[in-house]
Amino acid sequence: MCVPKLSISVPVYNTEKYLRQAIESLLFQSLSEIEIILVDDGSTDPSGELCDELRKRNRYIKVIHQSHQGLVAARNAALAAATGKYISFVDSDDWVDHELLPSLVSDLENQSDVDIAVGRTVRSRNENSSMPYLTRASGKLDRDQAIKEMVNKDGMHWYLWGKVYRRSLFGDLIADTSVTVFEDLDRIWPVAMRARKFFFDDKYAYHYFMNLEGMTKKRCDLNPSSWRVFQRILLEKKAVECVRQEMANFYVQVFLRHTLEMYFVDREGYRYEIRRYVQELKDTLHEAGAEQTVISNEEYRIISSGCDGCIRYYESIFRKLKTLLRGLSERYSSIYVYGTGIIAQYLAAIMEEVDIRPSAFVVSDGQARAREFMGRPVLYLSEIQKNAEIAFVLALSGTAKQRVLDILRDHSGASFDMSTQVIPI
């Protein structure tokens, strides 16, 4: 077999029902000089066996099996095995337009000063339901402009997927396997800093699968690596000045979310760690010269007074949640909590403190579910009778909020007068 022009990294973990579609989208395209590297990261479903089956059927596929070590380690393994001039990353529950990767490879082949080619991104629930997500006009961008657009999600994003890179950019870079949140940002930042030019190509799309099962079942991750990704970027001497303010504000927001989870899990047990982390946050912003960029951030002003100020802020959040929940219980006969992850656990505990029991927890139709969660039934959305006397509380974070709101609107129809509250955690 000749040396491939393009290596495609596909980390696989318990995605059997999506994997075949992802791989077929890679095989049914015009670029034949490829290698598809499937890294089975210790799957407990039949994903590993499916990887082997696909390898037997197609000579372009390589398979690596390893114990479960996480997304970063799986991508490290794929990079170590890659031999192509270029490399791309595809998640195992996503898929690509058949001509996306050939088009991006062509962009790199025809423009010697371009190191990263980027395609359009659409959000998809299935092959027949897609929504525009991020796009911009085709064209060449210098490094700083491209990084600013990625950080602000202004036409591009900081995820690894949806792009083709010159593999030499990764060189000797080894990503930190302790990072379990913001893994893509942690890996793409040093790669982007090495790039000369970017090229955005709007002809074809990467389909980002809106996997609501994963969103609604998110669990608490007390690993401080989540906000230390932003810490490393801020302290880097070559950091792009044009995004310093955005990165500093991201750092504060993620830090608050992380330490709030710690405080909720064990208010007394984590008090020392919170005190230490607050000081670490202040020291980092001072060393990076970024204090002035977040001085107008009300949350930063609160926690900059020290651990006690941080804890007062957390307590104020819990008081607001209790007031919100009491108000809903007075207005509506039934309250449903959408989600079965860590935020839903928060809500269940807080609701118990104010003597409110959710009628049920709700997940999207077709999603895997347990019979019960926190002592209450788990229902599909379609199982809930439509009427004006119920309220939904979305126990979700990030982009999942808006996606589930869209689903609720589709479900409700014009006759369904419901109240939907998004918990501010």
Q: How does this structure look, described?
A:
By secondary structure, the protein is an alpha/beta fold. Helices cover 43% and strands 22% of the residues. The protein has 15 helices and 16 strands. The strands form two sheets. Strands 1, 2, 3, 4, 5, 6, 7, 8, 9 and 10 form a ten-stranded mixed beta sheet that branches. Helix 14 links the parallel strand 11 and strand 12. Helix 8 packs antiparallel against helix 9.
Distance between the termini: 52 Å
* Helix content range: 40-55%
β-strand amount:
15-25%
If you compute it from the alpha carbons, what radius of gyration comes out, rounded to the nearest whole angstrom?
23 Å
* Poorly predicted regions: 214-220, 413-425
Class derived from helix and strand content: alpha/beta
Shape: globular
- What kind of sheet is the major sheet? 10 strands, mixed
Number of E-type strands: 16
Write the layout of secondary structure elements.
Layout: E1 6-12, H1 16-27, E2 34-41, H2 47-57, E3 61-66, H3 71-81, E4 86-89, E5 95-96, H4 100-110, E6 114-126, E7 129-134, E8 139-142, H5 143-151, E9 163-166, H6 183-194, E10 197-209, H7 212-216, H8 225-235, H9 244-265, H10 271-287, H11 291-294, H12 298-303, H13 307-331, E11 334-338, H14 342-353, E12 360-363, E13 372-373, E14 376-380, E15 390-394, H15 400-412, E16 419-422
Helix pairs in contact: 1-2, 6-8, 8-9, 9-10, 13-14
